[in-house]
Design goal:
- This protein is mainly α and about 210 residues long.
- The protein contains 8 helices and no strands.
- Helix 2 runs antiparallel to helix 4, helix 2 packs antiparallel against helix 8 and helix 6 runs antiparallel to helix 7.
Length: about 210
Amino acid sequence: METNKYLNDITEIKNIMNRSSRFISLSGLSGVLAGIYALIGAGFAYVKLKNTSAANYENFSGRSSSLWGSDTVSELTLIAIAVLVAAVITGFIMTLKKSKKSGEKIWDSTSKRLVFNFAIPLVVGGLFCLVLMQQGIAGLVAPATLIFYGLACVNASKYTMGDVRYMGLVFIGIGLVSTQFIGYGLYFWALGFGVCHILYGALMYYKYDRN
């Protein structure tokens, strides 16, 4: 009995330390919805590319100085922004709801460190993708978004649940593989931001949220 009591005390102390150093209110269901949004966005992008003339479509697997500012790139960028905004808003609302339920503050020093460390690789990656489009190397945009998003997850994982690190490593792996299949970036993008987000969100929901 005494041994069990000590073990329970140690577990409780460990939980308190985790709550004080890690933001643990990320919603698993928001990850699932983000994945669904990404698949819908990929569907719209696929239809857009299918309706693009063959000559222009080939530009996305190679290099062309004419891509910057083109209608197709602008519309694909708008689709990506719409997916990002929907995912962020959904994630914020569901995380706020979960944090209120668990009594955790959604904006404190821990969540600030989480956002800051997540944003650094993400912003750098976004700027790098703009340079790729400026230089007409649109075929590497999808791999770059996957790799830099993975780096953002790995960099932020020390301030939230450790599972985020593994998801980030998966994204980096998918991004690196996709660099060898230029022209098929949309499929890898859907695999990463769509399927992986859904699987990870479902895992997090059953692991943490159901309790």
